[in-house]
Amino acid sequence: MAPLNESSGIPLYVQVVEELNKKIQEGEYLPGDRIPPEAQLCEYFGVSRITIRRAIRKLVEENALYTKQGKGTFVNPIKIKRRLPKLYSFSEDMRELGLTPSSRVLEQEAREADDETAEILKLPKTDRLVNLISRVRMADKMPILIERSCIPHYLCPDLLKDNFETRSLYGAMAEEYRLELYRAEETYEVRLVTAAEARELGCKRNQPAFAIQRLAFRKDGTPVELTRAVGRGDILRFSVQLITHEVRFSRSVFNIESGDTGENDETDT
Predict the structure, then answer these.
(1) Are residues 107 and 222 in the same domain?
(2) Where are the alpha helices (DSSP H) in the chain?
């Protein structure tokens, strides 16, 4: 039985809402999962069916859950729509969507680049070291991407002294080394999530995912970053809206069940 506090002054249904939200945020209930039926939740929380129904109704109103008649109540798969044509910062984009960005570092070390990476980054033959930073990128504590970034060591030899769980990689490159990104090339493919990736992303193995490769350059054409990322296909959406004589970019969090979209538009002519 979950520990609800009847003497706290907080309504029991609110406590149930908080407990269910916690299970969603911690990945116990994944996007698309069916939550336990009302009778089981009543027994688990030690409350009445009326209290459970009120809590579920509140979570549906908050777009955390949705119901299917005759099938049950499910965790809402939220799509994060990301702009494609412009250079972006994960942290900035998530904040603009009203989400709280965070990162968890998996690897952070200097190592010798393999032949393919050295060629793509045009590394000097005398210095093939790269700063490798591998992170899980999260929005509201939900894992979204695994990013594996390689930055030429000769351009920023002390980069790894920073803590990239709390600091922006692009911010550190710009502020400490004046490495301003001018343009980038990205490629997108679709593949399945591996077992190891699923553990880090909190999703199911063999779930569809985006495989993203990003190569960023300074204005003089020097490659400064090669990032290979895996993004959850159940959460991410990439879109471009093309209009005669202009291109319109939009970002939103999209509720695929209700169809509600909160958008943030930008227009270039």
Answers:
(1) yes
(2) 12-25, 38-45, 49-61, 90-96, 115-120, 169-177, 195-201
- Residue 52 three-state SS: helix
CB atoms within 10 A of CB 154: 13
Residue 93's CB is within 10 A of a number of other CB atoms, namely 19
Q: Which amino acid is at 129?
A: L
Same domain, 262 and 200: yes
pTM: 0.64
61: domain range? 12-75
Give 106-165 pLDDT, tens digit per residue: 999 999 999 999 999 999 999 999 999 999 999 888 899 999 999 999 999 999 999 999
**What is the CB neighbour count within 10 angstroms for residue 269?**
7
- Model confidence over 242-263: pLDDT tens digits? 665 555 544 444 444 444 444 4
